[in-house]
Amino acid sequence: MKTLIGKVLKYNIKNLNTDLIIPARYLTKSDPNYLAEHCMEDLDSEFNKKKEKYNATILVADSNFGCGSSREQAPIALKAAGIKCVIAPSFARIFFRNAINIGLTILEFKEINALNTGDALEINFKDGIVKNLTSNRKYKVKKMPLFLQEIISAEGLLNFARNKILKK
User: Tell me: the pLDDT tens digits for 149-164?
Assistant: First the structure.
């Protein structure tokens, strides 16, 4: 993935944990669409309605996003709900890895106060540029290593590995 254009849904919450992303009571099924229906439900029962209202595909939150348990269903639920990228100043290590493994783009960005719900963003991952199309401001961000960008572009680690094996 080189560039992403999308709209923001923002939660000014530090330590937004995996239990808030997908509550444990919904882990009885592994269907991504089922998980998407209940994504963020305990944090905001209107999450899916707000996501639709703003046509949001980019979730913005505060630091230590995805802390808590190691459940990979959290990034799966977000991705299945239509979130293409999560932006936060920092991510819990296990969430970071799980997101990469399933092909959910994440972006470390310290200046989240410059972003608001409804803002349109253009993110250039290759160059590490976030352009807020609403405010017409540009920000330089820490670029994700190329091999992680390749895993995300392949829609996850398994597809990436499968593609590498098939090319040999």
Answer: 999 999 999 999 988 8
pTM: 0.94
33, two tokens: 């669409």
**DSSP of 62-117, one letter per residue?**
-SSBTBS---THHHHHHHHTT--EEEES-B-HHHHHHHHHHT-EEEE-S-GGG--T
Q: On the CB side of 113, how many CA atoms lie within 13 Å of its CA? A: 0
Q: What residue type is 152 in one-letter code?
A: I
Structural domains of the chain sorted by starting position, each given as residue range(s) with its CATH number in brackets: 3-167 (3.20.19.10)
Q: Residue 166 in 3-state DSSP?
A: helix
Q: By the 8 A CB rule, do 61 and 107 touch? A: no
